[in-house]
Amino acid sequence: MNDSLAWKVLLLSLLLPLAACQRGDSTVGKSGEEAASLEARPCWFEVDNSWPVTQCFMMEVPENHADPEGRKIRFPVVRFIANEKNPDKFPLLHLGAGGPGASMGLEPENASEWLWINYATMTVENGRDLIVIDPRGTGMAEPRLSCAEFIEDASAAYQRPLTADEEARVFTFSLERCYSRLSSEADLAQYNSSAVARDVEALRKALGLEKLNLYGVSYASRYALTLARDFPESVHALVLNSAVFPDIPYIQQLAGDSLAAYKRGINFCSKEKHCASRYPNLRQRLENLVAQLDQTPVTVSIEHPFADAEFPFVMTGQRLLRVLFQALYDEGFYPELPAVIEGLEKGDPAPAREAVSSFMAIILDPYFGDAAGISHFCYEEAPFVDFHEARLQAEETGILGSAVRKDLEVMQLQCRIWAIPPAGRLEAEPISAPAPALILHGALDPVLNAKDAERARKALPNHQWLLFPKLAHDVISASNCAEYAAARFLDAPDADATEGVQQCRADEIKAQQVPAQRQGESDSNEDSALPATPQQAPQETPEQATERYSTADSSEDYSGNPPEAFTETPAATWLPLGGI
């Protein structure tokens, strides 16, 4: 949804490492219609006897599905077999880490048990296989459309105090060189959500499966929706985690959404009396800090997985905005934000090191399919953006929107460089697929505003909606309650899966607050920015609940427990909520 730099930052989905495996069966599926095949391979990462039996494959498909005899590409497929398999339960297909372009972490040096453990309640521990892929162009896919030119230039640029204009020129040159190289190796017009949907349909046939349950997090949720639209008979149910809806003009409103994200971060502290007293006037201080760092940058020395030695990151004001926005994807950063601002005010980089390290680990990730992400954007998003209007809106956001103003310029330029045909209007219309869907969203999500998701979800005729206060992006990775709800939904998609989630989440919040409160009480020299104890809210509609938990200026911003309207059952049929 943005330039090669902002692509990795503004629409990050968590890169989830994957489990190890054993060699799978040699049987493969073949679809002559699609000229696609599934090849069993020894898994390329180490195994552990405590993990599920796992099969590894490479799926070969036409790069251009309209030319089945043309160039072929491949993407990895890993299947975790349920401990006690239930033949009546369709597998759950995880459609990738989002981005678009993010790797699932299937690489030999990155793969771990995290992914299957994170989804075990929904899958291998519940009689259902889990299938994981890297979509075309990303991670372990062949080819991987990664811009090594950008990584090289970014590594050098972030060690220098460049202005925003200088930085934009550097990265534009990176894109030009990247396009020049990759356009001779791949048809960049073939990397988009519709093509991924065709890939997955070919995979379903190759696996011999009647239907699939689909799991999409962040941009991968758009793959799930596209599949449900284009191949409705192949989809049993959808779990959409921090969902991207094609009819929401994310780039059109990027400046306003970014400003709202910074305000939510600031309000997290200002609504709690101890934090507000310890760190007053945070918005003004942040605005002043951005201007100060643009004039006099601070060097933040960090370590991260893709640097051989200590990395001297030069923090300008514009870079601070990018670092903070990426950090706000994680609800755990919200209590840390005030200390980061105060530390940089005083020239102390220590509080910012972790956020900067995470930022640079994303920027310099060699497995991120930058070019594939740009192709998605230029095909299915940019054609429907009024960039002139977006720039006008960005002008109204003050200094906190200054990084977005530069992004908008580069976004248009990158699509001129890519020069791929735009999608038809269908790719910007609401998707009203009939498959049952569970939509889970975090009220603190910085990039996918909860109010937008609340409106867009209504196009789906058979869905359930869960809004989680105090969670940001990717709620299933952050909350056991969210995973339990998804497991219940997959077992019975047409029944209420939301019952008891309200109380479960309230208990979860309380359990997380207790140790933090004890730590704050034991340290007389430092106040903790703790959220308030959850309180039962009055009855209200789902729309009112979403407004209350996602509005940056709300006086009750994220301090309460979700009301009964926290959930909505299929066809707007209300059922009572109980405990889990």
UniProtKB/TrEMBL annotation:
<feature type="region of interest" description="Disordered">
    <location>
        <begin position="511"/>
        <end position="580"/>
    </location>
</feature>
<feature type="domain" description="AB hydrolase-1">
    <location>
        <begin position="124"/>
        <end position="261"/>
    </location>
</feature>
<dbReference type="InterPro" id="IPR029058">
    <property type="entry name" value="AB_hydrolase_fold"/>
</dbReference>
<dbReference type="Pfam" id="PF08386">
    <property type="entry name" value="Abhydrolase_4"/>
</dbReference>
<dbReference type="InterPro" id="IPR000073">
    <property type="entry name" value="AB_hydrolase_1"/>
</dbReference>
<keyword id="KW-0732">Signal</keyword>
<feature type="compositionally biased region" description="Low complexity">
    <location>
        <begin position="531"/>
        <end position="544"/>
    </location>
</feature>
<comment type="similarity">
    <text>Belongs to the peptidase S33 family.</text>
</comment>
<feature type="domain" description="Peptidase S33 tripeptidyl aminopeptidase-like C-terminal">
    <location>
        <begin position="408"/>
        <end position="499"/>
    </location>
</feature>
<feature type="signal peptide">
    <location>
        <begin position="1"/>
        <end position="22"/>
    </location>
</feature>
<keyword id="KW-0378">Hydrolase</keyword>
<dbReference type="InterPro" id="IPR013595">
    <property type="entry name" value="Pept_S33_TAP-like_C"/>
</dbReference>
<protein>
    <recommendedName>
        <fullName>Alpha/beta hydrolase</fullName>
    </recommendedName>
</protein>
<dbReference type="Pfam" id="PF00561">
    <property type="entry name" value="Abhydrolase_1"/>
</dbReference>
<dbReference type="InterPro" id="IPR051601">
    <property type="entry name" value="Serine_prot/Carboxylest_S33"/>
</dbReference>
